[in-house]
Amino acid sequence: MERIGLNGLSYSLLGMLAYKSCTGYEISKMLEVFWQAKHSQIYPLLIKLEEEGYLSVEVVPQIGKPDKKVYSITALGVETLEKWIPNPLQESIVRDEFLAKIYSIWLAEPTTAVKLLEQRCQFFRHKVAERDKLITQMETEYGDELTNPSSPHFGRYLLFMRKLQMEQDEIDWCLWALRFFYQ
Amino acid sequence: MERIGLNGLSYSLLGMLAYKSCTGYEISKMLEVFWQAKHSQIYPLLIKLEEEGYLSVEVVPQIGKPDKKVYSITALGVETLEKWIPNPLQESIVRDEFLAKIYSIWLAEPTTAVKLLEQRCQFFRHKVAERDKLITQMETEYGDELTNPSSPHFGRYLLFMRKLQMEQDEIDWCLWALRFFYQ
DNA sequence: CTTGGCATGTAACGAGTTACATGATTTG
DNA sequence: CAAATCATGTAACTCGTTACATGCCAAG
Q: Smallest Cβ distance to B95: which of A19, A35, A98?
């Protein structure tokens, strides 16, 4: 089963840049939503995608800061993205130490187990709060555009709502699991 | 930030073997729940963990099939697992091509977009059905043990319920997203 | 005056996938 | 008779992380 074309990270970068032009630095901050990668992987890949014609680059000199390289997607890049969407879906990759710990939680002291669950709950409460703020911002800024399937904001909106739901769900489950320790 | 001790996959293997002894082949089938890995990664790691004293191994000759190696966790293995649980949580790794496609979905034809969402929905319906069957099986087999925090079945139960919820949620979200294409 | 943010890159290493290799039994 | 299941392993490769490298500015 040979993988043709680009890899998942490349498509993610193209997708981000189709929404708007930005620097590698900005991408590395925003990419966390669906494909976390470190800058050491992103920068070389942007260079490669630019060399292959999927992206164009403009160097913006700055004072007091290093120059920045603003990448934009090319016509070839957009075409490549569009062709990728109907391709068969790869199974998603999830590697979650927390779930691994849950599997072994019967070995832990109840206090340790409770701490683990409460920690996770706390973590996701913060996530939900942040996400909520972002979504409200988007709603006031773009309104009806968000639910229009051909607006560039649509995909972003769907994704953010999905993440919010995931995070709220994680909290619900933690609270459900904690009940077994209090009775 | 140096990582001490074993890696996530190693702990996952120890966790599985703490529940019950099994072969690398069996592990590779069950591991999908929280840490997918191919047999080519699992077999060498089991050998390494055995050499380091976390596991013991018994070779079971078989007729008509290759001999199998049944691994069991040692006292050192259990101790190591127990110490790992209270350690600070690593952030979970999610790399999901589907979410990346959602981000770029505004570029696709509506029919392509709808197909993508329906495919995903279908895929998770199957998952839910399978998971449901497994959970019902566990419930009839182990009953109250499932909700007892010190039973070996407890972690497994929590995990399976979490996965079920995740899968049902994915369906709900797909249906929600599909609505924007029908009006 | 130190921590964090902005901004980009390379080198060495560890983690994970794909393909190669073998071989009997059962099921369609 | 082909495909799937059981069962284990190695080699070559790609992907991803950690650490190294640089340097200015703003805030506490």
A: A35
